[in-house]
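thought: fold this chain, then report.
action: predict
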Amino acid sequence: MSKVFKFFVVLLAILVFSVVLTPILYSVLHPYFKFEKIFNRLIMIFGVLAALLFILSQRGKTGKFFDHALWKTYGFDFAQPWLKLFSVGVLGGGFTVLLIVLFEIKFGPSSDREAFLLHKIVEWFFTGVGAGLSVGVIEEFFFRGFIYTQLKKKTNIWLAVILASAFYSLCHFFDNGQIFIPQNPSMGDAIRLLFGYLEPFTQHALDILPEFTGLFLFGVLLNLAYIRTGSLFLSIGVHAGAVFFIKFQHAFVEKAPEAYHVFYGNRPYYDGVFEWGMLVILGILIWKFAPQLIFKTRKT
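observation:
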C-alpha cells in the first residue's frame, strides 16, 4: 500500500468518524456547543491523533511511548533547556502583541475599554492561559513538529517552511459557520459542513488575503524558532504567548468597529502592514538570538 493511498485512507477515516460522531455528541453537548464547533473540533482531534499514531508507529525495539530519540526528531528535545525556551517564547510572543495593541490604541483603530471589570479581567486571563497552552502545544506539534518534519524529508528545508506555513495559514480559513444547521441535525448536515469549508476560498479569496499573509508570516517565524533551536519549545512559547495576550487584551481594549485599514488591519492582530512588520522583526530576532538559548554543545 503506497504512502499516498494510506494518507487518503486516513483522511477519509477522519472525515467519516467526524460525520458519524458529531450528531451523537451534539445530542449530549447541546446547547453548550454548536453543531459546527463539535464537527470542527472532532476533525482537529482525529487529525492530531493520526499524527501521534504515525509517530508512535516508528518506535524502536523498546516499544516505549516516550522514545527520546524518536520524539527529539519531532522537536521534543528535553535534553535542551525546554522551560527556558518556552518562557522566552511566551515573553517574545506576548510582548509583540502588547506592542501592537499599544501602538494601535495610540494611533490606530483600537480604543480603551471605558471600565475595567475585575471579573472580566479574571475571565479573560484564564481564557488566555487555557487557549494559549492548548493552541501552542497542539498546533506546534501538528504543523511544525509533524507537517514540517515530514515535508523536510521530501524536499529542501526552505520549501518545507513555505509549504508548512501556507498550510498552517489556510487551515484557519476552513470556516463552515455560515452553513444553516436545523434544531435536530443529522449526519447529512455534517456532510454539508464539509462543503462549507470551501466557501472562503471560492467566494472570499481576496477578503481573506490580508489575514492569510499575517498567519503565513507567523508560521514562518515559528518555523524559524524550531530550525534555530532544534526544539519545539521556543515556538510553542511564542505561539502560546501571542494567543494568551490576544485573548487577555479583550479585558482592557475595545477595538474599533469592523473597518479594514491597510496599515493597521482589522480586528485580528495580523492582517495589516504594521502587524506584518512586527512579525518580520520578531522573526529576525528569533533567527539572530535563538541559538544562544540552547546548550553550546549543540550544532545549529
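thought: worth noting. The CA atoms of residues 224 and 287 lie 6 Å apart.
final: C-alpha cells above.
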